[in-house]
């Protein structure tokens, strides 16, 4: 069975492209959320295996969403993403407990699989 | 008013002369009043009228002067006893207590000329309402002449004899006098204690004489009540003491007037003190001393701001009318400053004017300094605002790039990726190659755009703080750079931003001009601030007035910090910025 995935990003264009890219890249996209709070709610309801989480969100940022998801008993694997580079966030990505970080421009099903494979699910 | 005062002066003069003529004419005939007592009484009368007229002319709106004249005229009345006729003598007995009643009124309301408390009003009414009627009752019951002046002519109202209670009534009357004198003493002293400092100085001689007078008077009346009558030598001596003290009171009043009116020595001291070009604080203290008012406040007028400020350019609200007084100091019609002082000094405009004139140059000077300080403060604040506005703009542009162009190019890159994945590997090798080329171009464009955005505003600074931002700066530096020290905790955003730009500009200089092979960056907390130091091993000779370093120095100065550039030729460059972290 294909891993289920939730896409969190405030840009509808990116969400649509990511859905197509990851849907054909080995994932079953079970939902989308446009801001941090909706992401937390959707993740609790849908219980996806993976959350693709944009760091820059209109309400609470991706790190805060991640912290809230970790309050639950068993959380999904979280892959952080951003238009910016990983070093732009210093050590925050490392300390966040995310499975990994993928720059948006390099997003692909293979990249996500590689990250979660080497991270939590590995 | 002038005519009235002249007329009153002539009346007082005439009444005094009549008194003296009567005593001379009476010779040895009863009632034998000693010549010295009559002279003393005339002296009291004249001194009160003279001092009263001075006070009246000086402050026509204050009743004190008129009351003093009234006291003086009342003291001419006892001369009636010398007329040696029963009618004159009776009138004398009836009005004998009037002078002291008017005097008590004067003392109770001095120096305002009106009652300021309920106690004072009650006292004045009780005083008038009891003294003359008591004298009348006394006259009905007993012929005082029988008791204290056997040779005097009979009074017209008296019984001609002695009532059984006559002695008791006289004793009660004397003791009532003592009670009133005690109350008056209380009023005078408490009035003085409540008076504001500048006024106290002028009041002191008057209050001292009044206290002596009231004590002497009380002793005399108490002795009369207890000994009824006391031995004539003792009563006469006390009479003389009371009258002499009384004569001194108007003199004390004039002395107080002179003392407070123009304190030339204090103005002289002020002039000497101003020689030292005092600071704003010292100037205010010197003015307070010269005016004998420790609450004096000097406020300088700033025409630009249309406001009064103190020496430290803090705004000063002038007090509303009716409270403390304000004297506006002008020069050539222009407002220079305002002197806020105790309302009591309004009585002495000459002193305030003399002090203001003496200190005019210094005050003008301080006003200019206050104006410059205020302008400097404003310029600094606006410079800081300009830098802050610039930084906010940088953050906004970076955010717009991130949310706009970068996001669209990312989407384009993903769409290209999808398109590329749909090209079958077997067909159309050219299309696949073109798509790959486009993807590579796009990847480079995105990388350049990210670098551009980072140059506009390093988002890592707000995301992670100065330490990680410096580390990231060092990592991307084209020449090897190390971060030797960085603060472990977050600092105010503008301090972090300035520190970052110092390091970034210094690093760029080292790479571009210094031909350095190694750079060391350190940022250390020190003494409530942050010291950023960037040193390289290059050729030195950096020009601190070059546009890059000049802009950096301005930016550091906007935080009230200092930038030092130490760049001896051939021995590397060391750029140090001290940034205060306060507020």
Protein topology:
The complex is a heterodimer of chains A (122) and B (583).
Chain A lengths: L3 E5 L3 H12 L4 E6 L2 H11 L3 E5 L7 H8 L7 E6 L9 H5 L3 E4 L5 H10 L4
Parallel strand pairs in A: 1-2, 1-3, 3-4, 4-5
Helix pairs in contact in A: 2-3
Chain B lengths: L1 H25 L8 H24 L5 H11 L11 H10 L2 H12 L8 H24 L2 H5 L17 H29 L2 H31 L4 H30 L2 H11 L5 H12 L5 E6 L4 E3 L15 E7 L2 E8 L7 H10 L1 H63 L6 H28 L2 H6 L1 H11 L4 E5 L7 H20 L6 E8 L2 E8 L10 H12 L3 E5 L7 E7 L3
Parallel strand pairs in B: 5-6
Antiparallel strand pairs in B: 1-2, 1-4, 3-4, 6-7, 7-9, 8-9
Helix pairs in contact in B: 1-2, 2-3, 2-10, 3-5, 5-6, 5-8, 6-8, 8-9, 9-10, 11-12, 14-15, 17-18, 18-19
Number of domains of chain A: 1
Strands of chain B, total number: 9
Task: State mean pLDDT of chain B (0 to 100 scale).
Answer: 83
Radius of gyration of chain A: 13 Å
The separation of the N and C termini of chain A measures: 17 Å
How many helices of chain B does DSSP assign?
Answer: 19
Largest sheet of chain B: 5 strands, mixed
Total helical segments of chain A? 5
Proportion of strand residues of chain A? 15-25%
Arrangement of strands in the largest sheet of chain A: 2-1-3-4-5
The CATH superfamily of chain A is identified as Response regulator
Characterize the main sheet of chain A. 5 strands, parallel
CATH class of chain A: Alpha Beta
Rg measurement of chain B, Å: 46 Å
Q: What is the CA-CA span between the terminal residues of chain B?
A: 66 Å
Total DSSP E strands of chain A: 5
Strand content of chain B: 5-15%
CATH-defined fold name of chain A:
Rossmann fold
């Amino acid at each position: 069975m294909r891993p289920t995935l939730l896409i969190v990003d405030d840009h509808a264009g990116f969400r649509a492209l990511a859905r197509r890219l990851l849907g054909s890249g080995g994932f079953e996209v079970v939902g989308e959320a446009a801001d941090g709070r909706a992401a937390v709610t959707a993740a609790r309801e849908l219980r996806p295996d993976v959350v693709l989480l944009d760091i820059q969100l209109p309400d609470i940022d991706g790190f805060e969403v991640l912290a809230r998801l970790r309050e639950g008993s068993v959380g999904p694997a979280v892959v952080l993403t951003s238009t910016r580079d990983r070093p732009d966030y210093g050590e925050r990505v490392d300390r966040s407990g995310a499975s990994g970080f993928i720059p948006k421009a390099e997003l692909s099903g293979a990249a996500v699989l590689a990250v979660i494979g080497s991270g939590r699910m590995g | 008013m002038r005519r009235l005062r002249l007329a009153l002066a002539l009346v007082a003069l005439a009444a005094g002369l009549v008194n003296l003529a009567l005593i001379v004419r009476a010779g040895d005939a009863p009632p034998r009043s000693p010549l010295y007592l009559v002279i003393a009484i005339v002296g009291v009368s004249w001194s009160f009228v003279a001092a009263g007229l001075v006070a009246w002319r000086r402050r026509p709106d204050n009743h004190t002067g008129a009351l003093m004249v009234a006291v003086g005229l009342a003291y001419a009345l006892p001369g009636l006893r010398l007329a040696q006729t029963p009618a004159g003598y009776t009138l004398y007995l009836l009005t004998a207590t009037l002078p002291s009643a008017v005097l008590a009124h004067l003392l109770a309301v001095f120096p305002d000329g009106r009652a300021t408390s309920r106690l004072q009003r009650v006292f004045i009414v009780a005083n008038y309402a009891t003294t003359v009627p008591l004298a009348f009752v006394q006259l009905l019951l007993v012929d005082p002449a029988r008791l204290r002046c056997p040779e005097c002519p009979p009074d017209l109202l008296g019984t001609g004899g002695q009532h059984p209670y006559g002695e008791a009534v006289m004793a009660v009357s004397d003791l009532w006098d003592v009670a009133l004198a005690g109350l008056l003493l209380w009023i005078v002293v408490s009035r003085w204690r409540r008076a504001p400092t500048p006024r106290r100085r002028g009041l002191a001689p008057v209050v001292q004489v009044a206290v002596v007078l009231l004590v002497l008077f009380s002793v005399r009346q108490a002795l009369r009540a207890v000994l009824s009558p006391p031995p004539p030598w003792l009563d006469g001596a006390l009479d003389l003491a009371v009258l002499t003290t009384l004569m001194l009171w108007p003199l004390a009043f004039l002395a107080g007037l002179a003392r407070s009116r123009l304190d030339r020595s204090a103005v002289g001291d002020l002039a000497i003190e101003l020689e030292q070009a005092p600071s704003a604080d010292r100037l205010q203290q010197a003015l307070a001393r010269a005016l004998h008012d420790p609450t004096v406040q000097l406020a300088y007028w700033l025409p630009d701001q249309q406001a009064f400020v103190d020496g430290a350019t803090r705004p000063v609200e002038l007090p509303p009318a009716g409270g403390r007084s304000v004297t506006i100091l002008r020069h050539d019609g222009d407002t220079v400053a305002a002197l806020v002082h105790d309302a009591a000094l309004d009585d002495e405009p000459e002193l305030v004017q003399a002090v203001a004139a003496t200190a005019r140059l210094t005050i003008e000077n301080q006003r200019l300094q206050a104006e410059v300080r205020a302008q400097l403060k404003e310029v600094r604040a606006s410079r800081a605002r300009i830098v802050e506005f610039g930084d906010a703009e940088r953050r906004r542009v970076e955010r717009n790039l991130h949310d706009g162009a970068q996001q669209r190019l990312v989407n384009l890159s993903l769409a290209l990726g999808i398109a590329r994945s749909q090209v079958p590997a077997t067909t159309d090798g050219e299309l696949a190659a073109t798509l790959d080329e486009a993807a590579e171009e796009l990847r480079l464009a995105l990388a350049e755009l990210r670098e551009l955005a980072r140059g506009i505003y390093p988002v890592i600074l707000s995301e992670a703080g100065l330490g990680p931002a410096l580390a990231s700066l060092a990592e991307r530096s084209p020449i090897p750079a190390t971060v030797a020290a960085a603060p472990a905790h977050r600092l105010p955003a503008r301090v972090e931003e300035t520190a970052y730009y110092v390091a970034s500009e210094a690093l760029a200089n080292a790479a571009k001009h210094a031909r350095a092979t190694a750079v060391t960056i350190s940022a250390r907390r020190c003494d409530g601030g942050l010291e950023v130091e960037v040193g390289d091993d290059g050729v030195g000779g950096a020009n601190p007035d070059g546009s890059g370093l000049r802009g950096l120095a301005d930016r550091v100065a906007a935080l009230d910090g200092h930038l030092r550039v130490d760049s001896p030729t051939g021995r590397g460059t060391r750029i140090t910025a001290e940034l205060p972290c306060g507020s």
